[in-house]
Amino acid sequence: MKSCEKPTNIFPLALVTLVGLFLINILGFIDTQTGSALGCGRDWPLCNGEIFPAEWDLHTAIEFIHRLTVFIDLFLLAFLTAATWKRYRTRKVIRVLMGICFAGFGGESALGAMSVFFQNPPSVLALHLGMSLVSFSALYLWTATLRQIETGKGQRLDTHDTTRIKQLGKWSWGTLIYCFLVIYFGAYVSFTGAGVYFQGWPFPTESFSQAHAALFIDLTHRLMALVLFLLILRLNLLACRMRLDRKDLWVGSLHALLLAVLQMFSGALLIITKLNLMAFLLHVTIVPLLVCSLSLLGLKTYSSQGKGRLMGSTLTH
């Protein structure tokens, strides 16, 4: 059902901002894995005491490009916020998503600045990744909402089977929360360096005498990843029951399941290649896509329980 509001051009701006934030996260991963976090020294927001550093090397270039991308995307986000607020501030879901996005972006920026001034422990570094995913997923839902409002694509998501919708919604939000825990622990494994001890997949071949406490850390991460896959498989089975009436939920659950499978095999590739940078980037690139897939599925079930009126229009593919 098409929105009755006059079309605007805010959605393209949101899409560009979303792509920019995605690049920020990828550059952040490269920054960390290449040891370039101090490529600009202990200065922030300046780089080695200058706006444009006089001397360059690979680490300086990576850190500088990362900071520049953050600066540009922050301006895009400011323009997007002003335009969205002016046009859609009466919509509760828009206000909530904007708030979550800014909270995540602010937390991510603060932790990023702290990493320059202090030697942060792995737990804090992992939290930085978590905050980046919060801001990205909120901006993704923000963008998806604008797309539906402004293009009017798709059909209404009304359904008479609210019991199944509610059940799927609970599993979706619960799985999303658990997914964040798995991602946080995975980042913790990475920042502690525990993953470098292992070569076997799906089970490590090293013994406790070889890896010590790192063995338990790695096994916990693999077990948590398996549970996440089973939860997403359960989501898929729940959505399958509604595939005739709610094809959008069925397709969304398939997306999540496919991304979960790809994430597991990218983890195997990471071990086989002995933590190769490209394998690592593939592994962390799938993560935000999986989070976005689960969050969109959750928002759709929320809309379908009679709460879509808060959006003024419901979300579809």
TrEMBL record:
Q: Which InterPro entries match?
A: COX15/CtaA_fam, COX15/CtaA_HemeA_synthase
Q: Where in the cell is it found?
A: Membrane
Please state the pathway this protein functions in, per its UniProt record: Porphyrin-containing compound metabolism
Q: Which Pfam families match?
A: COX15-CtaA
Q: Locate the transmembrane regions by residue number.
A: 12-30, 64-85, 97-118, 124-143, 176-199, 219-237, 249-272, 278-299
Main localization is membrane
Has keyword Protein biosynthesis? no
Topology relative to the lipid bilayer, per the entry, is: Multi-pass membrane protein
Q: Keyword Membrane on this protein?
A: yes
From what superkingdom does this record's organism come? Answer: Bacteria
Coiled-coil stretches are none
> Mind listing the UniProt keywords for this protein, alphabetically?
Cell membrane, Disulfide bond, Heme biosynthesis, Iron, Membrane, Metal-binding, Oxidoreductase, Transmembrane, Transmembrane helix
- PANTHER family per the record? HEME A SYNTHASE (PTHR35457:SF1)
Put simply, this protein is called Heme A synthase
> What's the source species for this entry?
Laceyella putida
Q: What is the lineage of its organism?
A: Bacteria, Bacillati, Bacillota, Bacilli, Bacillales
